[in-house]
C-alpha cells in the first residue's frame, strides 16, 4: 500500500478508522454526503430519521464555520445579528433534542476577523467565564472552542467565580481552548475550573497580564491542567525567569511550546531546565555517513559544553552513497510491551511529525466542516495525548536570542526537536574593540557558522524548520541609521556579505540533513545586486540534485527487497519582506517603475505558471550563451529566451557548491603549516579550565608601515585568507579579542582552522568587520582614531547603485519558468521512449512544493507548485 492508498482510507480527522468501521459496509448516504452542498443539509434532515442521522451531525459539527459558509455578508464575515440569532436559537432548543450534542467545534475566528465591522454594543458585555459557561451550556459536547479576539469582554472578578450551572457540570470538557487577543486579564484562579481540566491545547497569546502570577500561585500547572500538551503564549512579555518557572512547573509534560514575541534573551537557554528535553540522545548512523561527536570536559557561557565534530571523507561532504536510505529502527526487547518503540529516540525519517497548529488539531479532534466528528475514544488514544519526554515543537520567533544561543540550545536538545521556528536572531559582534562602522548599526540579525547544528549529529529528528534566510544565503539583515531600507540591503550585500563568506564559508545545503522535509527561509530581501539571487537559485538546484540522488538510490537498490529511502526536502517556502520601493523612503527620489529591468515586465503574477508571453524571443547578441559553463546567472535570469540548459551552478564565490556537489572532487588540501598556540584559562561554574588556543603561525615579525602584517611570516602564507585575517586581528587587538575560546567547528575548518583545535571566537567573529589596516582595505575609507586603531567610515550607495539592484522575485520567476519548460520537455522525451523521467540534471527542476510569500501580502499567485508544475 503506497501513501495515496493509505491517505484514501483516512477519515476526516486524519486518523485510521476502527476495525468495525473498516469492515462494515458503508451506507450509500455516507458515500454521497461529501458531494452534496452544505446548504442542502438542513432540508435533507427533514426527509426521514435515517437522513437526519447522517446529515444533522455534519451540519452541526462546526456550526460557526457552516454559518460563515452560508451567510457571509461582507468579505467572508458574518454579521453579528446572525451570530446572536444562532446563539438564541441554540438556547431555545429543548434539552431532549440531540442537535446541540452534535456540535464539536465552536470557532469564532472568522466571525471576528474584522473587528471594525462589528458594533460592540450588539454583542453585549460579559466576563469571559460567563461567555464560556453560556457556550458550554448550549453546546455541551464541544471539543474545540476558539474565541480569539472576542470583543466586548468585561474584566474577570478577582474572587472565585460562582458555582457553574447544573448543565455545565454535565458538559463534556473541551480539548482545545483558544482565547488569544482577548482584551481581558484573567484572575489567578481561572484555570482551576474543572471544566478546563482536560485541555490538551491552550492559546493565551497577546492577553494582558503576566503568566508569572499564575505560576507563582501554582495555579497553572499539571495539578489543574494534567492533560495539557500544547501551550501557545505569544506576546505575554515573558522574561527568562517566567519561562523557567513555566518549564519547571510542567517539566516534561508539554511537547509543543510557542513563546514567540516575548522578551527572552540568551539567558533563557542557560536557564532552560534539563528535563525540558529528553536525557537520551538519538542513535546516530555510521560515522562514515553522519560523522561522530567528541565531547570535551570544558564549557563557556556562549558555547556551552565543548564538543568536536569528527568527520569522515563522506560525512564532511555529505556524499555517502547510503545517506538517503532509511535505517532500520531498533525496538524494545520486551515482548509484553504492545507499544514497543525504538529506544534510540530516532524517528522514522519518512513519517510526518504530529502537527501543533490549531487548524490541524481541530480537524483531528472534531473533524472537517461538513463531516461527522470522529469517536472520542480514538481521539483520546491518539499519540497527541500520550505522555512525552519533553519539548519536540518549539517556536521562538521575535525574541532577543542570538544565533550562538540558538545553536547552543539545539546542541542541548540532544536531537529531540522535530519542529523549530525562529524567524530571526541577533548576530552579536565582539565588544570592547571598535573595528569598523559595523559596530554602530542599529540591528544585525541572522546566523553564520552554525549550519552544522542542523545536521543529524545534532538534529536527528528535525523535519520542519523555519529560520532566517542567512542559514542558506550567508547574508545578514542590517539596519543602519540614516539609510533607506534599500540602501541597507545594498550595504549588507556588497560590504558585509564578502566578509561573511570569508569567515563562514559553510552554508546549509539539503544533503546536510536529508531527514529535513520542510524548510522556510524568512526575511528575504526583495532586491539584490546579484549574490542573493545566485544563492537562492543554487539552493533550488541543490534540492533538485537531492531528488535525483534519491531517485538514483532507489534504482541502485534494485526492485526486490530494496530499502526505503528518505523523502528529502519536499517543501521550500521563501518569505520575502515587503517591497521597499513601494514605500516613500529617504534617498529614493526616482521612479521605481522606471528603473525596473524591462524583461521583468513580461512576467505577470497572475499568468498561469508565470510563463512569458514572448517566450520565443531570441537572446540578444550581447547576452552570454546559456550553454557556457562559466556564465553566471545574474545577467541572464531576467531574459525570456528558451535556453538549452538551465543556468549552471556557480562555483565562483559560491561557498556552498563544493560541499554540496558529491560528483565534484574534494578541494585540494593545503600543506599543514607550523602552528602557534597560546595557553588560555577561564572560569565557568566555579571550575577553572585551561586550553591551548590556536593563534596561527610562528614566529611573528613586525612589518614595515603600510605593509601586510603577515608579509614576513612565511608560514602564514600557507593559511587561507580567513585564517590570516584571524591572526592579524589577534595581533592588533590582543587584549580585546583573545577571549571566548571555543572548539573549531566544521565551518572553522572549512575556513582554514586546523581540525580539533580551539580558537578565540571573539577574534574570529571580528573578521566580519569590513575593515582592514593598511592598503589592503576591502571597503570604506580609513581614518585614525584615538588609541592607534584604524576605523573605516560607513560607505553609502549612490543612486546608480540602488537603481542597479534587481528584483529577486522576478529572477526566481524567470528561473522557475525556465526549469519548468526544460522539465516538461524531458517528460515528453521520456514518455516517447517509454522511460521514467530523470530528476535533477540537466533541467534542475525542483518538483517539490515551492512557495513564495510576502510578509502581510500572502502567497504570490502561481509560485506554489506541486510535482511536475
Brief descriptors of the model:
869 residues; alpha/beta; 13-stranded mixed β-sheet; two-stranded parallel ribbon; 30 helices; globular; disordered N terminus; disordered C terminus; LRR_dom_sf
SSE order and pairing:
Blueprint: H1 3-8, H2 19-23, H3 28-32, H4 41-44, H5 49-60, H6 63-70, H7 80-92, H8 99-102, E1 105-107, H9 120-123, E2 126-127, H10 128-138, E3 144-146, E4 153-154, H11 166-169, E5 176-178, E6 201-203, H12 211-216, E7 230-232, H13 240-250, E8 256-258, H14 266-270, H15 287-290, E9 292-300, E10 304-310, H16 313-317, H17 358-366, H18 376-380, E11 393-395, H19 403-412, E12 419-422, E13 443-445, E14 464-468, H20 470-473, E15 477-479, H21 485-503, E16 518-524, E17 527-528, H22 531-557, E18 571-576, H23 592-595, H24 657-660, E19 676-684, E20 687-696, H25 721-732, H26 734-737, E21 741-743, H27 746-751, E22 758-760, H28 761-765, E23 782-784, E24 790-792, H29 799-803, E25 806-807, H30 808-833, E26 849-854, E27 858-859
Parallel strand pairs: 1-3, 2-4, 3-5, 5-6, 6-7, 7-8, 8-11, 11-12, 12-14, 14-16, 16-18, 18-26
Antiparallel strand pairs: 9-10, 13-15, 17-25, 19-20, 21-22, 23-24, 26-27
Helix pairs in contact: 22-30
Amino acid at each position: 500500500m503506497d501513501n495515496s492508498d493509505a491517505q484514501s482510507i483516512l477519515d476526516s480527522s486524519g486518523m485510521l478508522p476502527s476495525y468495525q468501521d473498516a469492515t462494515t459496509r458503508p451506507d450509500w448516504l455516507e458515500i454521497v454526503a461529501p458531494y452534496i452542498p452544505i446548504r442542502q443539509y438542513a432540508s435533507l434532515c427533514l426527509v426521514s430519521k435515517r437522513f437526519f442521522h447522517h446529515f444533522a451531525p455534519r451540519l452541526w459539527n462546526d456550526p460557526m464555520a457552516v454559518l460563515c459558509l452560508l451567510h457571509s455578508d461582507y468579505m467572508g464575515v458574518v454579521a453579528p445579528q446572525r451570530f446572536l440569532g444562532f446563539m438564541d436559537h441554540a438556547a431555545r432548543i429543548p434539552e431532549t433534542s440531540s442537535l446541540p450534542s452534535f456540535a464539536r467545534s465552536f470557532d469564532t475566528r472568522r466571525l471576528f476577523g474584522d473587528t471594525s465591522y462589528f458594533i460592540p454594543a450588539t454583542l453585549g458585555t460579559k466576563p469571559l467565564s460567563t461567555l464560556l459557561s453560556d457556550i458550554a451550556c448550549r453546546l455541551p459536547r464541544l471539543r474545540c472552542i476558539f474565541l480569539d479576539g472576542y470583543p466586548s469582554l468585561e474584566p474577570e472578578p478577582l474572587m472565585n467565580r460562582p458555582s457553574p450551572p447544573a448543565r455545565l457540570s454535565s458538559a463534556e470538557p473541551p480539548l482545545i481552548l483558544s482565547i488569544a487577543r482577548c482584551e481581558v486579564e484573567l484572575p489567578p484562579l481561572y484555570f482551576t475550573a474543572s471544566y478546563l481540566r482536560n485541555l490538551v491545547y491552550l492559546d493565551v497569546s497577546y492577553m494582558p497580564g503576566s503568566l508569572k502570577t499564575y505560576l507563582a500561585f501554582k495555579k497553572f500547572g499539571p495539578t489543574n491542567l494534567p492533560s495539557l500538551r500544547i501551550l501557545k503564549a505569544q506576546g505575554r512579555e515573558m522574561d527568562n525567569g517566567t519561562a523557567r518557572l513555566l518549564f519547571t512547573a510542567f517539566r516534561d509534560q508539554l511537547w509543543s511550546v510557542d513563546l514567540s514575541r516575548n522578551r527572552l534573551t540568551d539567558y533563557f537557554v542557560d536557564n532552560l531546565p534539563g528535563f525540558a528535553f529528553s536525557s537520551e540522545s538519538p542513535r546516530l548512523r555510521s560515522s562514515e555517513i553522519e560523522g561522530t561527536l567528541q565531547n570535551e570536559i570544558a564549557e563557556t557561557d556562549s558555547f556551552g559544553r565543548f564538543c568536536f565534530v569528527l568527520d569522515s571523507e563522506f560525512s564532511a561532504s555529505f556524499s555517502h552513497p547510503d545517506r538517503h536510505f532509511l535505517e532500520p529502527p531498533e525496538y524494545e526487547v520486551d515482548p509484553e510491551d504492545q507499544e514497543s518503540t525504538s529506544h534510540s529516540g530516532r524517528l522514522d525519517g519518512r513519517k510526518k511529525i504530529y502537527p501543533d497548529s490549531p487548524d490541524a488539531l481541530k480537524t483531528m479532534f472534531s473533524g472537517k466542516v461538513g463531516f461527522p466528528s470522529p469517536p472520542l475514544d480514538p481521539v483520546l488514544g491518539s499519540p497527541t495525548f500520550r505522555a512525552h519526554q519533553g519539548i519536540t515543537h518549539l517556536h521562538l520567533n521575535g525574541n532577543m536570542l542570538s544565533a550562538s544561543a540558538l545553536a547552543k540550545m539545539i546542541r542541548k536538545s540532544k536531537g529531540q526537536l522535530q519542529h523549530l521556528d525562529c524567524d530571526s536572531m541577533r548576530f552579536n559582534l565582539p565588544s570592547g574593540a571598535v573595528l569598523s562602522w559595523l559596530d554602530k548599526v542599529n540591528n544585525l540579525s541572522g546566523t553564520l557558522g552554525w549550519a552544522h547544528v542542523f545536521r543529524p549529529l545534532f538534529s536527528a529528528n528535525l523535519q520542519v524548520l523555519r529560520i532566517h534566510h542567512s542559514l542558506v544565503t550567508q547574508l545578514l539583515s542590517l539596519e543602519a541609521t540614516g539609510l533607506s531600507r534599500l540602501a541597507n540591503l545594498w550595504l549588507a550585500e556588497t560590504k558585509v556579505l564578502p566578509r561573511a563568506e570569508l569567515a563562514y564559508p559553510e552554508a546549509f545545503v539539503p544533503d546536510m540533513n536529508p531527514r529535513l522535509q520542510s524548510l522556510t527561509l524568512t526575511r528575504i530581501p526583495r532586491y539584490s545586486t546579484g549574490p542573493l539571487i545566485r544563492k537562492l537559485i543554487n539552493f533550488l538546484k541543490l534540492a533538485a540534485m537531492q531528488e535525483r540522488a534519491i531517485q538514483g538510490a532507489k534504482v541502485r537498490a534494485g526492485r526486490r527487497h530494496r530499502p526505503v529511502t528518505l523523502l528529502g526536502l519536499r517543501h521550500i517556502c521563501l518569505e520575502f519582506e515587503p517591497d521597499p520601493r513601494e514605500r516613500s523612503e529617504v534617498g529614493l527620489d526616482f521612479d521605481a517603475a522606471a528603473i525596473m529591468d524591462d524583461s521583468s515586465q513580461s512576467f505577470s503574477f497572475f499568468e498561469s505558471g508565470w510563463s512569458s508571453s514572448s517566450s520565443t524571443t531570441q537572446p540578444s547578441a550581447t547576452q552570454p550563451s546559456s550553454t557556457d559553463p562559466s556564465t553566471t546567472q545574474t545577467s541572464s535570469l531576467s531574459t525570456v529566451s528558451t535556453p538549452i540548459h538551465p543556468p549552471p551552478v556557480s562555483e565562483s564565490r559560491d561557498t556552498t557548491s563544493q560541499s554540496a556537489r558529491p560528483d565534484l572532487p574534494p578541494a585540494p588540501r593545503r600543506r599543514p603549516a607550523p602552528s602557534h598556540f597560546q595557553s588560555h584559562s577561564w572560569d565557568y561554574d566555579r571550575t577553572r579550565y585551561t586550553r591551548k588556543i590556536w593563534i596561527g603561525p610562528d614566529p611573528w615579525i613586525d612589518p614595515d608601515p603600510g605593509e601586510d602584517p603577515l608579509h614576513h611570516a612565511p608560514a602564514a602564507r600557507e593559511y587561507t585568507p580567513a585564517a590570516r585575517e584571524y591572526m592579524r586581528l589577534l595581533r592588533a587587538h590582543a587584549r580585546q579579542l583573545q577571549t571566548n575560546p571555543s572548539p573549531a567547528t566544521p565551518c572553522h575548518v572549512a575556513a582554514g582552522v586546523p581540525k580539533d583545535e580551539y580558537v578565540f571566537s571573539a577574534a574570529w567573529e571580528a573578521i566580519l568587520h569590513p575593515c582592514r589596516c593598511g592598503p589592503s582595505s576591502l571597503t570604506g575609507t580609513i581614518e585614525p582614531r584615538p588609541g592607534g586603531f584604524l576605523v573605516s567610515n560607513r560607505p553609502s550607495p549612490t543612486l546608480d547603485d540602488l537603481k542597479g539592484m534587481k528584483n529577486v522575485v522576478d529572477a526566481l520567476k524567470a528561473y522557475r519558468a525556465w526549469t519548468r519548460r526544460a522539465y516538461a520537455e524531458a517528460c515528453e522525451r521520456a514518455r516517447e521512449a517509454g522511460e521514467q523521467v530523470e530528476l535533477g540534471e540537466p533541467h534542475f527542476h525542483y518538483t517539490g512544493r515551492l512557495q513564495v510569500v510576502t510578509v502581510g501580502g500572502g502567497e504570490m499567485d502561481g509560485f506554489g507548485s506541486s510535482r511536475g508544475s
